[in-house]
Design goal:
The chain is mainly α. It has 11 helices and no strands. The chain has helices at about 10-20, 20-30, 35-50, 55-60, 65-70, 80-100, 105-110, 115-120, 130-140, 150-155, 170-195. The protein is globular, with a radius of gyration of 16 Å. The N and C termini lie far apart (about 50 Å).
Length: about 200
Amino acid sequence: MERMELHITGDAAADKLLSDDAFALLTGMLLDQQVTMESAFAGPEKIRTRLGSLDPSAIADHDPAGFIEVFKERPAVHRFPGSMAGRVQALAETVHSDWNGDAASIWTRGNPDGPEVLRRLKALPGFGEQKARVFLALLGKQCGLQAEGWREAAGHYGEEGSYLSVADIVDPESLVKVRASKQAAKAAAKAAKSSNA
């Protein structure tokens, strides 16, 4: 699978780790809630720097209280260090035990089609429907995933030329467009909620 250089965080070391390490990319996606995309996807590099490794078995085996401290160290990995540290450890445990520590095999083992990759992603701790679809779109648009039907399985995140998620960020300009579409979606959801109240 041909990998592109990812440009998500604005930090060269963090982006290189995301480009080179499938588990780092998966972890960044997991952290992408209630913080900016750049902050979420910079998290794996902070973890790697502080622990000396981003190996799923090392993270899974780490003392949970100590792992929360890794998250709390400034700059914090996430604004909810306790719950997110637990989720990252659960993800690491699943990748270690179900996928032999190789996160990329989630989307490569047995040459799965798009719907199967989506099913595998949704089975991961912390990955709901939307997060799994966004990540599938990221794999297809930027990481060279060739799985048949990935665009359809990713839903509107898979559409060519869309600026809906991290899957569409390739440079500062596209980041601005994605941020604007996310804010518009949030505003629309808020308006819909208040009109139903």
